[in-house]
Write a structure and sequence with these properties.
This protein has 238 residues and is an alpha/beta fold. The protein has a domain at 4-87 and 157-235: Rossmann fold. The chain has ten helices and ten strands. The chain has helices at 44-51, 74-79, 97-104, 111-124, 126-130, 141-153, 171-186, 198-204, 222-227, 229-235; strands at residues 4-15, 18-29, 33-37, 59-64, 67-68, 82-85, 159-163, 190-194, 207-212, 215-221. The strands form two sheets. The protein has a six-stranded mixed β-sheet, with helices on both faces. It has a four-stranded antiparallel β-sheet with strand order 2-1-4-5, with helices on one face. Strand 7, helix 7 (171-186) and strand 8 form a beta-alpha-beta unit. The longest helix has 16 residues, at 171-186. The radius of gyration is 17 Å and the shape is globular. The chain starts with a strand and ends with a helix. The model has no long low-confidence stretch (mean pLDDT 93).
Length: 238
């Protein structure tokens, strides 16, 4: 592993008078998959949105590829290669599958490379090629999640942040999505994974963080977290 690609330092963030993140620090080296798990309301989505600068942090720092990205517009963060697949998929429901994918490349000017990357997305999720002319809102939940991931990949990210990719999806499609994450990582993509299925997330990742009401309660190798009786009792249903 190289030095940190993403470094979050003592991040505080919230909404109005409510402080959601109280002192969050984490890091990812290039080429890692790292999981962020925790109960509902712990602040996992807020962490990702604060890193993306969709939510403006109140204090702390977010550094990507060695430079602070605090104060950048979300589209400027994307231009640097830090991309989020939001919770709930949020595809453009009245546009076709192909139009959604091309929207992911709206900041790019390298037309031939965009077509190449579109082919790679189709290799990863063949159903998207088959449904290219279909209206996105008519896809199943799992197919919409694949489309959201594909759209994010069309931005050509260095680091992909994924918020609850298995939520509300049939198990067979969850398996395909997790296999795709593993393949993307094998090709060099760094992934920060927020996932309700803590066991699956830790099984996929090298390291994990456990967020507890806005604070990192536990951190370490995924194998260690999987065997920790406190984690097993609180998050793994053991």
């Amino acid at each position: 592993m190289s030095e940190s690609l993403l470094e979050v330092r003592k991040l505080h963030a919230g909404y109005g008078p409510i402080e959601v993140l109280k002192d969050v620090s984490l890091h990812l080296a290039e080429g890692e998959i790292v999981s962020l798990i925790g109960s509902n309301g712990a602040g996992k989505s807020t962490t990702l949105m604060s890193i993306s600068q969709v939510v403006e942090p109140r204090s702390g720092d977010v550094r990507f590829a060695g430079e602070s990205i605090l104060g950048l517009r979300p589209d400027e963060v994307i231009r640097r290669g830090l991309v989020q697949v939001p919770e709930g998929r949020r595809v453009f429901p009245r546009m076709t599958v192909l139009e959604n994918l091309k929207m992911g490349a709206y900041l790019r000017t390298d037309a031939s490379a965009v077509e190449h990357d579109l082919g790679k997305v189709y290799e990863l999720f063949s159903v998207l090629k088959e449904r290219g002319s279909q209206i996105a809102g008519t896809l199943s939940g799992g197919e919409q999640q694949m489309l959201a991931i594909g759209r994010a990949l069309m931005t050509k990210p260095r680091l992909l942040m994924m918020d609850e990719p298995s939520m509300g999806i049939a198990p067979i499609l969850v398996s395909k999505i997790f296999a795709a994450i593993r393949q993307l990582n094998s090709e060099g993509l760094t992934v920060l994974l927020v996932e309700q299925n803590a066991r699956a997330a830790l099984g996929l990742s090298a390291r994990g963080y456990v967020l507890e009401t806005g604070l990192i309660g536990f951190a370490g190798p995924s194998s260690q977290l999987l065997s920790d009786p406190r984690i097993r009792s609180a998050y793994l249903g053991d």
